[in-house]
Amino acid sequence: MTEGFRPSHPKISIDDDPGIRADIEALTGELSQQQLAKWALIIAKKALQYVDDQQKYDRKLRLAIDANELWQVNLVTVYQVRQALTRLAALQANSTSSIGATAIECVRWAVASADADENALRASDLAIKLVNLTQPNNQVAVSAERRWQYAQLAGLAENIQQGLRHML
């Protein structure tokens, strides 16, 4: 753990694996906001499978993800990302299931990681909420999702370290 690290509690009620979440949170402190946004979108793209059928191909979803990806390379502003978030909120309000609404909420927080880096962790918590909704009382599935999230994050961190070594 990094010095001064204090695990936060999820902002939502979920059955979780707090040990792995704390490991994830500690690792997030080593990455930039753009890198966290990339990780959050990896999680959100996995959550897209749970979006309601009539919304899966809605352009607003793709445009919001694109807005975040373009923000990561400084091609759009945070204001433009916020506009995409407003459209996602409307899409979420029109969801016909709690699972679909949670999936869109996961995407929203991932896209919102362009606005604040802690939103990436919130997106990961919503992915756990999706596991809770789709596989109730399944701690094995929750732990597997958290391990997958950690592996994705650690992979990004490792790629960054390798890139820095090659630059030196």
UniProtKB/TrEMBL annotation:
Residues 28-154 form the Imm-5-like domain. This is Immunity protein. It comes from Lactiplantibacillus plajomi.
